[in-house]
Amino acid sequence: MRRREVAPGPGAGRVERRTGPYLPFVPLVLAALATAARLPLFARPLSPDEGGFLLLAGQWAPGSSVYGDYWVDRPPLLIGIFGLADHLGGAVGLRLLGMVAVAVSVVLAGAIGRVAAPGRRWAPALTAATAAVFLSTPLFGTREVNGELLASPFVLGGLLAVFLAVAGRSVARWAAAGVLAVCAMAVKQNMADVVVAAAVALAWQLRAYGLRRAAYGALAAVAGGATALAAIVVWAELRGTEPRELWDAVVAFRFQAAAVISAAQPTSAGNRLAGMLRAFALSGAPLLFLLPLVPARRARERGPLPLVVAAVCLWEVVGVAGGGSYWWHYLVGLVPGLVLLVAAIARHRPGLQAAVALVLACATVSGALSAVQHPVTTVSDDVRAADYIAAHARPGDTGLVAFGVPSILQKAGLESPYEYLWSLPVRVRDPKLTELTKVLSGPRHPTWVVVSGASLDTWGVDATRAQQVFDSRYQLVGTFGQWRLFHALDGRGTLAP
User: Fold this and answer.
1) Residue-level pLDDT at 166
2) What count of other Cβ atoms lies within 10 Å of the Cβ of residue 370?
3) Which of 211-215, 237-241, 445-449 is predicted least confidently?
4) What is the secondary structure of 105-154 as a DSSP string?
């Protein structure tokens, strides 16, 4: 027979409810299953971003650009994690870190369910299952180890710290929330979920308990965040990345890129948006967002959880929409909000917990069907192009991909004399290809150039002058699908005498 007990809520005083024993092993089992689901990905070739970040991170030291000799619009902690993966064996190390990120995220999601919905026996299992399902479904682009995936443990850990701080009076928990908030944004700059959640929770505390308690919490969170930010900035500067350059790459560039994309309105972005929305619909996640509209008995609970859920989910939607390029992995940024939403349903609408379990089961099936229909690819045009270059390149050769897909260079084992490895920085910072023209005509021009299509021309750039120089110095040596491989006429990547 179940007993009646009094269980405290996160900042909600004491609430009487019926409860059963907590099942701590369930999140651990779900974490193990989510980790096992990533084992087939070891056979998957690196994505453009994965290969590019490994290439960039492996040479990060004082150099001619933001990160060594390369420029990218990403925060330093992400590059540091990819540097760790490079030390752990490159692709294998990156896949291992992806497994760790998912496993830790699932366990933290379970802890959020226990803290945010105390006394609800199935809440930890449901929140952990939410993280496990949506960090594993291919419909969220989870086959790649990217910024959103690697930031997830920091976001979920920060959210857990916020709810622990609201439930108690420990300034150390608020400080931990501040540290984790900064770490999350130092991996992916738009992953500010913890900042949003903390602001809403502190506003609720101000109203419920007065200025003093809220002020102590806010000061502790700011102190923790400021300490973490200072440590990351100093660490990056010691590796050759100056704070001014970092601000320009991580913050200012995002506004410049948004303006360029908006002005050009490329059809590719519209097609990707449609594809991302279709994947989101098929994933089953929209059903979770609709569940609160289903009539059900409301539990008499207090606390900031519903307000936090609304604010975080709104921020995440803005982050996904504001990315501009609409890659599927943007959807991973919705996972923390989904975890909080499920915790809120368990706490405030406990009668809908069975419906949550049913939705998660359907989402699991949908993800499995997607994985079967789109199996892991081991051979692609990118891989064949890289293998050809690797087989024919000589020591000292360099390369360039026009534009983007730096994983080709990473797999071929070549460095690039051009600082922009991705296409968007080219369009924003070198739209007339002035710098590229200097590289192509200079003494260190690349030995190999890989071009998508018939020419260097693409949306957002003026390739007139660069194409003239390119045509005079390179010859076509192979074609692999969309990729055309060119080799320098002198054969060495230096101007002939």
Assistant:
1) 92
2) 16
3) 211-215
4) HHHHHHHHHHHHSTT-TTHHHHHHHHHHHHTT-GGGTTTS--HHHHHHHH
User: Angle, to 10 degrees, between the axis of helix 305-322 and the axis of helix 147-167?
Assistant: 160
CA dihedral for 245, 249, 254, 256, sign (positive or negative): positive
Q: Can you give the residue range of the structural domain that contains 111?
A: 19-373
And the tokens for 418? 């051009």
Two structure tokens written together for 489:
């006429």
Domain count, the chain: 2
Q: Residue 52: inside a domain, yes or no?
A: yes
In a domain, 67, yes or no: yes
Chain centre distance of CA 483 = 27
Last residue of a domain, one of 320, 345, 373: 373
- Domain end marker among 322, 355, 373: 373
Residues 101 and 245 in one domain: yes
Is there a domain that residue 88 lies in?
yes
d(CA 293, CA 355): 12
pTM score: 0.91
Residues β-bridged to residue 486 = 449, 476
Q: Return the bridge partners of 420, or none.
A: 71
Angle at 24 between CA 34 and CA 349, to 5 degrees: 90
Residues 172 and 316 in one domain: yes
Residue 478: its pLDDT value, please?
93
Query: Does residue 421 lie in a domain region?
Result: yes
Report how far residue 66's alpha carbon sits from residue 497's, in angstroms, rounded to the nearest whole number. 33
